[in-house]
Structure formats: C-alpha cells, structure tokens
C-alpha cells in the first residue's frame, strides 16, 4: 500500500486529537487547580492530592468526594458516591467500544480507563466521520490526563489562592465546555427531544433528592428515550 502527502500518519493523528481536545484542557485545568487546593484544605498532602487525580481522573466525583470529606474519612460513603457519579461512564463505554476496532485488544481497557466526558464526545464525533485510531485517541486523552494531574499538584502547592472559583471567574468554564460538547451532537437524530428530556429529568431528580443521583437519572432518561424513539425508515424496511 502506498502513502501520499495527505495520508494520515500516527503523528498527524495524534496532533489532530490534541488540537481537538485542547479547548477542553484549557477549561479543565482551572478546576484541577481548584481540586488540588481543596484537597490540601481537607488535610491531604500535595502527593495525596496528585495521586487522587492520577487514580480517579474524574472531576465530578473528585469534587463530590472532597465536598463530603471529613476526618476520619467515610470511605464507604465516599466510594458509593463516586460510583453513582461515574455510573454514566458505563453507558459511555458501551457506546465508545463500538469504535475501537482499530485498537489492539490489550489497549481497549486502557482507552476506556482514560475516557472522560470530553474525550468521549470528541471520539464519538470523530468516529462519525473517520475511523477512530489509537493515535488520535491518544491525542485526546494522554495530554489531558497529564495536564489534569500536573494542575492538581500545582493547585495543592498554591493552596488558598484558588479556593474561590467565582472570584477568578472559573465557575462557568466547565458549564461552557459541556454546552459546546452537547451542541456538537445537534445533528444527530432525536437531539431536540433527548437533550431536554435528559436535562429535565436530572433537574427534577435534583430538586426532589439533591445529590449525585440526578446525573445518572438524566443519563438513563436520555438513553431510554433514544431506545424508544422510532428509527426513521425502519417501518419501510420491514
């Protein structure tokens, strides 16, 4: 097989993945800084703060865990809370694994381990246009992961300077990036119905029972509506 100047190489695929995810990294780094500062404020060392980000790598569950942190730490409650917050990753993994055909089998679990909301959304968008390659996915995830851990360590070192995200204008950055991610799926069938149903369910559950369950409730509502929605052309084909 011959290659030409326009043939993608692993490096160009990696570069494209990094370019795609860079705005999300820019939005996530301030929150990783904040997590590091909050962790130190809760009594963790800088090393423990960095290990938390390295092992968990999930901003929402880390925030929830730190918000519930006390001495001694309620390990069971913290673990269950983190599990509830991240249950949506199971649904996301089922979606993403369909596109990992070019990945060696041994690499697929690592790919799912490094998956976060942003990399999942960008990988899905890429797979809708081109085959998802390991190099492109590495560009989406590896630098994101390393920057998250490094920013957490920096936040732990800076400490009290970063404890109020509103004072620094950081409270809206994550909201903004998720709005952009959602709008990236606006051309998908059922978008106009699924997104309001998911958001409405999450808001209702949070109003009735505040806590992390609203995240999973919204995700399940969207999945169920997508499953029940009639597929265009299905009736004619049958």
UniProtKB/TrEMBL annotation:
Localisation: Cell membrane
Main location: membrane
Keywords: Cell membrane, Membrane, Transmembrane, Transmembrane helix, Transport
Transmembrane segments annotated in the record for this chain: 20-39, 51-69, 75-94, 135-156, 168-187
BP terms from Gene Ontology: L-valine transmembrane transport
InterPro entries (alphabetical): Brnchd-chn_aa_trnsp_permease (IPR011606)
Entry's family note: Belongs to the AzlC family.
Protein name: Branched-chain amino acid ABC transporter permease
Organism for this UniProt entry: Zavarzinia compransoris
